[in-house]
Design brief:
Strand content: 15-25%
Number of helices: 3
Helix content: 25-40%
Radius of gyration: 15 Å
Distance between the termini: 37 Å
Order of helices and strands: HEEHEH
Oligomer: single chain
Structural class: alpha+beta
């Protein structure tokens, strides 16, 4: 069974075998097919998302690339708790949240 290009790129990024895994370690990136684009800290990230979607015809995947050699603890939370954290982290420009 063949994995699509996005899955292959995600697998190599997350395993650390991708040539750009070290460069993007500890950062969030958009991945679609073989293209990797770092998440901007400004509103440019929305235009990047739209650009990649238009260019490839499918939505990019947002993923956190772990730093090589670092350990991470993932916690699962409910949707409402996640929205509260999102609200706290974004501070500005949140005018409406839909649940």
């Amino acid at each position: 069974m063949n994995k699509d290009l996005t899955e292959q790129t995600l697998h190599s990024l997350l395993s650390g075998s991708h040539p750009l895994a070290k460069k993007y370690g500890g950062k969030h990136v958009f991945v679609v097919d073989k293209e990797i684009l770092p998440l901007a800290r400004t509103e440019k990230s929305l235009s990047d998302f739209k650009y990649l979607k238009a260019k490839h015809g499918k939505s990019p995947v947002l993923v956190f690339v772990p730093q090589p050699g670092a350990s991470y603890i993932l916690t699962l939370m409910g949707r409402l708790q996640a929205l509260k954290i999102l609200t706290l982290n974004m501070k500005d420009k949140i005018t409406q949240l839909e649940i």
